[in-house]
Design a protein that fits this description.
The complex is a heterodimer of chains A (560) and B (493).
Chain A (H helix, E strand, L loop, with lengths): L2 H18 L8 H8 L22 H16 L7 E6 L1 H9 L10 H16 L7 E4 L4 E6 L4 H21 L1 H6 L5 H19 L1 H13 L19 H6 L11 E6 L2 H8 L5 H15 L2 H5 L1 H21 L5 H14 L8 E3 L17 E3 L6 H17 L3 H6 L9 H11 L2 H8 L2 H7 L2 E6 L4 E6 L6 H11 L2 H4 L2 E7 L7 E6 L8 H15 L3 E6 L5 E7 L17
Parallel strand pairs in A: 1-3, 10-11
Antiparallel strand pairs in A: 2-3, 4-9, 5-6, 7-8, 9-10, 11-12
Helix pairs in contact in A: 1-3, 3-6, 4-5, 6-14, 8-9, 8-12, 9-12, 9-23, 11-12, 14-15, 14-16, 16-18, 19-21
Chain B lengths: L2 E4 L9 H10 L1 H13 L11 E6 L15 E6 L10 E3 L24 E6 L1 H8 L14 E14 L9 H34 L7 H12 L4 H19 L5 H22 L11 E10 L2 E9 L6 H21 L2 E9 L3 E4 L1 H6 L8 H15 L6 E8 L5 H16 L4 E7 L6 E2 L2 E2 L3 H12 L4 E6 L2 H12 L6 H13 L1
Parallel strand pairs in B: 8-9, 8-11, 11-12, 12-15
Antiparallel strand pairs in B: 2-5, 6-7, 9-10, 13-14
């Protein structure tokens, strides 16, 4: 421990001791709660502290307060105020189904998701997340009622300190979300949806929301959060540049990636209430944008801190060895990373292995991609190691941080200024690559084979970093779509470009279904062009599939 | 410090409406699935637990833009064992092979599920089961039961519990009281100010009458508070101007008035902000609740000719009817009456499973029903339904006619009467036509005469039960014609 950290540790210890001194059970209160196996363990204040309202009078609150003292005094982590809500398994399933948006509006798809989650839950025999945390100010953590006291401590350290701090300090969250008003926005949207349902019919509203959901991933202002709620003013219309080379003189839309908002603003015949709902949905979607791009970092950061804070508790002798054992078991379970070829036997209802047609027991793969908890935790731990116990290799690869005196600041810098892809490029060390035995597989449809393109040797380190970074970039899991042309003065068709990356095509069946949704709202033809990086259009889809022909007689196609 | 909230008591109603939307969206398919289930002799399941419904996956599919197969896909995985760089493998069949399946790919465990299966709760099942059926004459009697009461909001009271304080109403009263009391003091202050003005104005070197007019002019149209202010201003400037010029007596008088004003002002300021008399409490009154309750009389012939098969079918019919009544009324009583040549009231177990031997006098059962009805179920409090199942045999035409007259008498008072003739697949056929039994023939005219009140149907096998039930309660179908239509194919067969 560095001197500064040691000093801070001492200060935190004194503060915690002073706090616990106000309670009858003093420093044993956490151990006693674990023994009683009650997270609603009674906390009795001593006589002199009876009426002090600043002292927590709830066990969970006390846990949070102790962690907060450690986080603030020892490590200087800032957090939003915490809400800890205790919920049942059923309510946890509800939270799953609302995709992390509590108080969301009503829609059949949430009902469907709820059913799916419940089925999964029943199949897995009761495996639920211990917590869900929501990026709002105050930060809300949902904790399961069935958790043990130690699990509640882990959850509070993980969610109410780790995630909470990440939400407050990470650049993506700072730039793209407004933690203080998202809840009000969601509530407002709920109200709007409800009112419009009453006024204009539930089915109409539901159809509109179906469309919003279909392009939900394309409803983000990628550049800034300041420029929201734009509407097209008259001046904008005059200033719109027109493509003079095209005889139809379409409006050039400057590669607008927020499809939902563009359509809300510009669809020719939409009633205002529909535009209103679309814009509000787009706003709430913005809220997920950073989440998807910081999964590894966010979970890694939270795991790093639950691990560190629980160890601090143990060092301070606030929790005992038995509790630590339970902690390690839970930690290992969450951070379990099966190998790519890990598989288990398929069992029948009686628990016997099922024999496949080839006479061997059937197996089922349990590999489900890289576990963001494990990878993120390993990387943050490794950065700490590079600061504290650097090797020759670290001095060479990370000259600026290797042997740094202050690992807390180095870690904070990493957490604050990166997202998953850049985090991999910057910090994935050879040691982590070797520990995980990472390798890259290239599956290219131009070859009739698949190839191991890199393994955990010095030659492969950079390649592995790049592939990981690439796969954690939004564009690898959400196709890049932009609005390009609006033929306002002719048939009012809208042209959307899909910018092809790595020759990956769109799923045509789904794309066609989404185009139908778009057409139902836009009211005129919607064209989707797949464009190569060289600018060549290699595929064109549209809804309706053919432009309507100009005919004098409605039923007779014009053959001339 | 954190805020800890226990939400476990809140239940999970947050999601019921989204689920409702989901069910509503798939209403037609759910109804179809339920009908299918019922036809497949699953009728026993009604009420016993949850019902699985499967929907075609594409009806609830949520499309998005995403990548399909093809192109270059590179991926990093953990746990290398023997691979070396540039090792090559044949692509496993199915293209994607080791590549992770995309959202649109079929599931990788090879069980390409294209049906979405979920479970309807019993309540939902019944809701959809009976959703397009209606009870005949349901609204006739919704009497008030004097036993059951409910507290209802009934205006405001001056006394009550703290938890029932209505703040809005109390605030209104407080504002009114404050205004009223202030007004009193303000009026007195204005009076005092006017006296001061009267004392001071003669010192002004002008016509008093004109000054008087000016003053009234400037105060005219002003409300109490602004008038007070204005007057205070005018008098204040007078005081400042003529304080030195005024005679000692006048100065003393003015000072006296000043003190009086200050005292009044002080008392006005001391009016209590809140007074007990401002408080208004929400008032609740105990009121009888209009209650809808129904009683269902199940009558069955248990003589030797009713075999187990017939009884089972009759039982299913009763069960459907009971569930349906439950759906429509808050409270449903059932009375079981079995009969041979005598009728008696029994419990359910005995009703369905106890065998008896003897002859068949149907009228005894109907008489028994009438007797129990008069004794226990006052007409103004209960909706009454009669349901009779029989194999259609009776001792002699005379008794059958007596039955008809009894039923006609009952129909004046009760909601509806259902007669189901349960047959057995082994029933006698005469010339390809089901032999009509005595009762059926006797009852037949009632169907037309008491349209929408008297219903009659015939059950051969289990699968007939639901269609007959539907026919009874279909919203548009309370007519004999449609009943005929139901049986027409059979008669022709």
């Amino acid at each position: 421990m560095t001197k500064l950290l040691e000093k801070n540790h001492q200060r935190a210890k004194e503060k915690i001791d002073a706090l616990l001194n106000n309670y009858e059970e003093g420093r044993d209160i956490f151990k006693n709660a674990a023994k009683a196996n009650k997270w609603d363990y009674p906390v009795n204040k001593k006589e002199h502290a009876k009426d002090d309202p600043t002292l927590p009078d709830n066990w969970l609150d006390l846990v949070e307060t102790v962690f907060r003292i450690l986080a603030e005094e020892k490590y200087g982590l800032e957090t939003y105020h915490n809400h800890i809500e205790i919920i049942t398994a059923n309510q946890m399933l509800d939270s799953y189904a609302s995709v992390g948006m509590p108080e969301s509006y009503e829609h059949w798809s949430f009902g469907k998701r709820r059913i799916v989650e419940e089925q999964k839950y029943k199949q897995q025999g009761g495996g639920l997340a211990f917590e869900i945390v929501i990026n709002t100010d105050p930060a809300i953590a949902y904790c399961m009622k069935s958790n043990t006291p130690l699990m509640q401590m882990l959850v509070i350290a993980h969610a109410s300190i780790g995630h909470n701090n990440f939400f407050k300090e990470n650049c993506m969250f700072k730039q793209f979300t407004e933690a203080d008003n998202i809840r009000w926005r969601i509530r407002d949207l709920r109200k709007t949806v409800q009112e419009c349902g009453e006024k204009y019919g539930l089915e109409e509203v539901e159809k509109l929301l179906d469309m919003c959901h279909a392009v939900g991933m394309h409803a983000v202002d990628h550049y800034t959060k300041k420029n929201k709620g734009r509407t097209r003013t008259l001046q904008d219309q005059f200033e719109q540049s027109v493509d003079k080379d095209d005889p139809e003189k379409p409006i050039i839309v400057d590669s607008e990636s927020n499809l939902l908002t563009y359509i809300a603003d510009n669809a020719p015949h939409l009633p205002d209430w529909k535009r209103d709902i679309m814009r509000k949905v787009a706003y709430t979607r913005q809220y997920f944008y950073p989440q998807a791009q910081t999964k590894v970092m966010n979970e890694g950061w939270a795991s790093f801190w639950h691990y560190t804070l629980l160890h601090d508790m143990s060092d301070l002798d606030l929790i005992d060895a038995g509790m630590m054992q339970e902690f390690f078991a839970a930690h290992a379970q969450v951070l379990f990373q099966p190998d790519f070829d890990a598989a288990v036997y398929v069992l029948d209802k009686e628990g016997k292995p099922v024999i496949g047609p080839d006479g061997k027991p059937k197996t089922r793969s349990i590999y489900n991609g890289i576990n963001p908890y494990t990878m993120g935790f390993a990387m943050f731990e490794d950065i700490k190691r590079i600061c504290e116990e650097p090797t020759e290799e670290d001095y060479e690869k990370f000259p600026d941080i290797a042997g740094s005196q202050d690992w807390v600041s180095v870690l904070k810098h990493a957490m604050e200024n990166f997202k998953d892809d850049t985090f991999f490029l910057q910090y994935l060390s050879p040691k982590v690559i070797r520990d995980f035995k990472l390798f890259a597989v290239n599956d290219d449809d131009e070859n009739d084979y698949i190839e191991i393109s890199a393994i955990h040797t010095p030659k492969g380190y950079q390649k592995i970093r790049e592939v990981l970074a690439n796969n954690h970039r939004l564009s690898s899991f959400v196709p890049n779509l932009t609005v390009e042309r609006f033929y306002e003065s002719t048939d009012r068709r809208l042209v959307i470009h899909h910018r092809i990356k790595d020759r990956q095509p769109l799923d045509e069946k789904d794309a066609d279904l989404v185009l139908r949704h778009l057409y139902s709202v836009w009211g005129h033809r919607v064209v989707l062009k797949s464009v190569t990086p060289e600018g060549e259009v290699i595929k064109e889809m549209s809804c309706p599939s053919k432009p309507r022909m100009k005919t004098s007689n409605n039923n007779q196609p014009n053959f001339i | 410090m954190a805020t800890v909230i226990d939400r476990t008591q809140e239940g999970n109603e947050r999601f019921t409406s989204s689920r409702q939307r989901f069910l509503e969206k798939n209403k037609k398919k759910i109804k179809k699935a339920i009908d299918k289930q019922i036809a497949n002799s699953g009728i026993k399941d009604i009420g016993s637990g949850d019902i699985d419904i499967s929907l075609p996956e594409d009806s609830i599919y949520e499309p998005t833009f995403h990548h399909g197969r093809g192109g270059k896909k590179e991926d990093v995985r953990p746990g290398n064992k023997t691979f070396k760089q540039n090792d090559r493998f044949q692509r496993p069949p199915g293209g994607g092979g080791q590549g992770q399946p995309g959202p649109g790919d079929p599931s990788n465990d090879g069980e390409g599920e294209d049906e979405f299966i979920f479970t309807l709760t019993e309540e939902e099942f019944l809701q959809y089961l009976y959703s397009d059926l209606a009870l005949p004459n349901m609204d006739k009697k919704k009497g008030q039961s004097s036993k059951i009461t409910e507290f209802q909001r009934e205006g405001f009271a001056k006394q009550g519990r703290d938890s029932q304080i209505d703040f809005q109403r109390s605030k209104q009263h407080q504002i009114a009281r404050m205004g009223g009391m202030n007004k009193n003091y303000n009026k007195k202050i204005i009076q005092a100010l006017r006296e001061q003005w009267n004392i001071l104005v003669p010192y002004k070197d002008s016509d008093i009458a004109k000054e008087q007019d000016d003053l009234e002019g400037s105060l005219k149209g002003l409300k109490l508070n602004p008038r007070l202010k204005k007057l205070d201003e005018i008098v204040g400037s007078l005081k400042a101007e003529f304080a030195d010029a005024a005679s000692p007596e006048d100065v003393e008088k003015v000072q006296e008035l000043d003190e009086k004003i200050a005292a009044l002002q002080g008392r006005a300021d001391n009016i209590p902000k809140w007074n007990e008399m401002d408080l208004r409490y929400r008032y609740y009154e105990e009121k009888p609740v209009p209650i809808s309750q129904a009683v269902m009389f199940c009558m069955m012939d248990v003589s030797g000719s009713m075999d187990e098969h017939r009884k089972a079918n009759a039982k299913l019919f009763y069960m459907l009817l009971y569930r349906f009544l439950k759906q429509n009324y808050e409270e449903v009583d059932i009375v079981f009456i079995r009969h041979t040549e005598v009728a008696e009231e029994v419990d359910e177990e005995t009703f369905f499973y106890d065998r008896q031997s003897g002859g068949t006098v149907v009228s005894t059962a109907i008489e028994k029903m009438k007797e129990i009805m008069l004794e226990r179920y006052p007409l103004n409090e209960w909706n009454i339904y009669g349901a009779q199942a029989s194999d259609g045999e009776n001792w002699g035409r005379e008794d059958s006619n007596y039955c008809v007259s009894l039923i006609e008498e009952l129909l004046q008072d009760i909601q509806a009467y259902f007669y189901t003739e349960v047959k057995s697949p082994t029933s006698q056929h005469h010339m390809g036509v089901h032999s009509r039994q005595v009762l059926w023939e006797a009852y037949e005219p009632l169907v037309e005469k008491y349209k929408g009140q008297f219903f009659m149907g015939e059950i051969d096998q289990k699968s007939d039960i639901w269609p007959v039930f539907r026919e009874f309660f279909g919203k548009k179908n309370h007519t004999q014609t449609s009943l005929n239509a139901l049986f027409a194919p059979k008669l022709a067969a």
